[in-house]
Q: What sequence folds into this?
């Protein structure tokens, strides 16, 4: 942990190493960073046990075991000073598989401030690197956590007798964290495009323009949903969810001069008619709606129709499709700290305005962050923004994420995806790449190409370096199948990633089996006890 007297160490590692290097800053503020003096300075965080062990090469490390919760690990108390920047690094591994490990600080104001994360593996050591800017002197506890929750299955027969040796299978069906990709109309008739999308395992899609008002009603009263209907049918066939983008957008941003020419009353009528048309058509078929796109940056409707225009449109949207999540959707909040209209507190003001409108007081309104990075991503700023927005307790997604061209485009893509995936407030990432073949020709995909899109593949749907990054990360975070057996008490315990799962229990002595859904949520850190009768 770096001090104010330590020059910053710019080195990092993205590889999983057999043996980790020595701590940066020689441990900095941490007491006994190499565990040369046993557990001096370290304590258990939560429950469980900790012990110092030695690797084959003589390195000391600490192991946390008999853990019941994600945060049952190790802890050290620190005294942090106002106005200083603190950097952090550590080497971690887990006992099996791959999973996100985060390091956090707990203080009197914030019980869980994530300062760094990494996808750790078994059998090798991965480097976490992060940091925090302190705006008040404080005592804090530094601890680690894993993005999982312990599940405890208790298996018995119909008479209540515990069954030892029951075979357990837990299959992840829908992870809580969603990764999706935007598409365009050519996917309807381009087999290579279809095969590429399905092979990637994306759980969500969104249409670039095909659900926008100007696409569906270019001329007043002449609606055409042929293209979005066909696109939606394709994704329904393959079990991929779809986000509705978007119901309304600033009229000065759309090529719809006929709408701007309408008197105010007729404009209101047209707005209501548009909502009733698209939302009734796709209600129950999309998981979310960007109701008024970019309505913090742009306010043509409010200027014309009054300051509560967006509020009224969100209320109508909630009535038309009550099961879908309604989103705000804005740009530059994460990407450009200098864009004052969209700093997190301004975004929260708009959220509070909508949620205080009569009829929307208890409505979940999600925060969409477009995340179009055209330059070097400022990860500490990104993390800080997510921390602030996360305090709203509303869902957060990156909705149109891409990275501008440059020699390290793929590297920046990986950095941001890892940062966002590991943040506890974020629930999904929607990639916003160029659409092959039109956007991803040779003249476009060169670093100095003339096209502005981030492409994942070339025109033949062969991966570019950015596509390799996405494949690698999705493989790291892919759906897992856990298998095991109940003990003499009829119990099977395991750390399970947040999301929807399917549990199958087989009693080999009778051949009886049962399958049931299992939803692992983050709303409680206690172990999830599930009783199963077979």
A:
């Amino acid at each position: 942990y770096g001090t104010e007297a330590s020059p910053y160490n710019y080195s990092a590692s993205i590889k999983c190493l057999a043996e980790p290097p020595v701590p940066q800053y020689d441990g900095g503020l941490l007491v006994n960073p190499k565990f040369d003096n046993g557990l001096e300075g370290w304590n258990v965080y939560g429950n469980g046990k900790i012990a110092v062990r030695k690797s084959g090469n003589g390195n000391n490390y600490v192991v946390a075991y008999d853990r019941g919760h994600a945060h049952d690990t190790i802890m050290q108390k620190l005294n942090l000073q106002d106005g200083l920047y603190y950097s952090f690094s550590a080497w971690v591994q887990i006992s099996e598989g791959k999973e996100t490990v985060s390091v956090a600080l707990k203080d009197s104001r914030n019980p869980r401030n994530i300062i760094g994360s990494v996808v750790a593996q078994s059998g090798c050591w991965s480097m976490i690197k992060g940091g925090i800017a302190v705006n008040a002197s404080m005592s804090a506890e530094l601890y680690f956590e894993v993005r999982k929750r312990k599940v405890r299955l208790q298996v018995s027969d119909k008479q209540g007798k515990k069954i030892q040796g029951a075979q357990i299978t837990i299959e992840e069906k829908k992870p809580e964290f969603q990764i999706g990709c935007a598409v365009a109309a050519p996917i309807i008739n381009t087999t290579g495009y279809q095969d590429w999308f399905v092979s990637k395992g994306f759980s969500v899609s969104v249409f670039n323009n095909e659900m926008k008002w100007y696409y569906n009603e270019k001329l007043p009263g002449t609606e055409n949903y042929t293209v979005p209907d066909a696109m939606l049918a394709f994704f329904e066939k393959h079990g991929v969810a779809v986000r509705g983008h978007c119901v309304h957008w600033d009229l000065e941003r759309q090529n719809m001069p006929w709408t701007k020419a309408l008197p105010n009353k007729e404009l209101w009528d047209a707005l209501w008619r548009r909502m009733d048309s698209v939302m009734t058509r796709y209600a129950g078929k999309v998981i979310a709606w960007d109701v008024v796109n970019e309505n913090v940056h742009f306010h043509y409707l409010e200027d014309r129709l009054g300051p509560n225009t967006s509020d009224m449109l969100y209320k109508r949207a909630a009535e038309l499709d009550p099961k879908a999540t309604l989103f705000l959707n804005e740009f530059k909040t994460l990407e450009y700290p200098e864009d004052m209209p969209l700093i997190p507190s301004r975004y929260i003001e708009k959220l509070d305005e909508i949620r205080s409108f009569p009829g929307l007081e208890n409505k979940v309104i999600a925060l969409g962050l477009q995340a179009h990075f055209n330059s070097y991503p400022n990860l500490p700023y990104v993390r800080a923004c997510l921390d602030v927005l996360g305090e709203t307790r509303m869902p957060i997604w990156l909705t149109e994420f891409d990275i501008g061209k440059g020699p390290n485009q793929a590297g920046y893509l990986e950095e941001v995806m890892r940062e966002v995936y590991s943040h506890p407030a974020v629930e999904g990432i929607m990639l916003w790449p160029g659409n092959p073949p039109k956007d991803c020709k040779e003249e476009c995909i060169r670093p100095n190409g003339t096209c502005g899109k981030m492409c994942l593949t070339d025109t033949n749907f062969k991966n570019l370096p950015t596509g390799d990054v996405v494949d690698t990360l999705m493989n790291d975070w892919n759906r897992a199948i856990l298998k095991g057996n109940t003990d003499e008490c009829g119990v099977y315990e395991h750390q399970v990633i947040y999301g929807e799962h399917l549990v199958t229990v087989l009693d080999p002595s009778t051949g009886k089996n049962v399958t049931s859904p299992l939803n692992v949520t983050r709303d409680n850190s206690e172990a999830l006890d599930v009783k199963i009768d077979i």
